[in-house]
Amino acid sequence: MTSSAPGSHEFTVTGSELLLQSPILAVRRDRVIMPGGAEKTREVVEHFGAVAVAAVDEAGNVALLRQYRHSVGTRLTEIPAGLLDIVDEDPLVGAKRELVEEAGLEAADWSVLADLVTSPGFCDEACRIYLATGLREVERPVAEGDEETDLTLDWVPLAEARARVLRGEISNSIAVAGIFAASEVVERGGDARPAEAGFPLRPTALARRRQDAGARPDMKQI
């Protein structure tokens, strides 16, 4: 079969099989028609999608968390973030919840900084990063029985946060993107998107499967 011109091939999926399910992800194997007509398999980690918040105070400090991540076996510096694992939850509502739960903060003003596809080589996870300003402290709910019971919160000037990225001290990709995007908006007058902007990259495969199986409202139920 003759290959199509570069950039014009339709990567048709001829079949899929579910390999694994766990509360926060699933793995499937797709059969895909490649340029030239060959059929290849591709494994995809399905994800609910996520939201994250670069919370910046009036002095230009960003809220940074230190949290243990078992996949890499160490604590990472991050911005508040969490899964979109509630049926039909608006991303902004999820972001507001995570800011309260992880940082004990509410914000008067919200906008969209960036949408990230975090690991497109094998995973459909997309994360929307918000900028939150006009902050006030609120009571943080008590976390029980997971990594969040051990997290710490620190306020760091945006310039210092950028320097920590360049020194290799901040390696969480969502935090890196959030810090630099927030700096562009807060310090250089960049234009963030409205908080209600559409999120077309939000994953749907895992959420649709869980909803079809009756997992409501918490889609982590399997």
Question: Any guess at the CATH architecture of the largest domain?
Answer: Alpha-Beta Complex
Number of domains: 2
Q: Strand-and-helix sequence, N→C?
A: EEEEEEEHEEEHHEH
Structural category is alpha+beta
Tally of separate helices: 4
Biased composition (Basic and acidic residues): 209-222
Pfam families: NUDIX
Organism: Corynebacterium doosanense CAU 212 = DSM 45436
InterPro entries: NUDIX_hydrolase-like_dom_sf (IPR015797), NUDIX_hydrolase_dom (IPR000086)
Could you describe the 3D structure shown?
There is one protein chain. This protein is an alpha+beta fold. The chain has four helices and eleven strands; from the N terminus they run βββββββαβββααβα. It has two domains: 1-46, no CATH class; 50-194, Nucleoside Triphosphate Pyrophosphohydrolase (Alpha-Beta Complex). Helix content is 21%, strand content 37%. The protein has a five-stranded mixed β-sheet, sandwiched between helices. Strands 1-2-3 form a three-stranded antiparallel β-sheet, with no helix packed on it. Helix 2 (158-166) packs across helix 3. The radius of gyration is 19 Å and the shape is globular. The mean pLDDT is 96. One of its GO terms (cellular component) is cytosol. This is ADP-ribose pyrophosphatase. Keywords: Hydrolase.
In short:
The protein has helices at 91-103, 158-166, 173-188, 205-212; strands spanning 13-22, 25-33, 39-46, 50-55, 61-69, 74-78, 81-83, 105-117, 126-137, 152-157, 193-194.
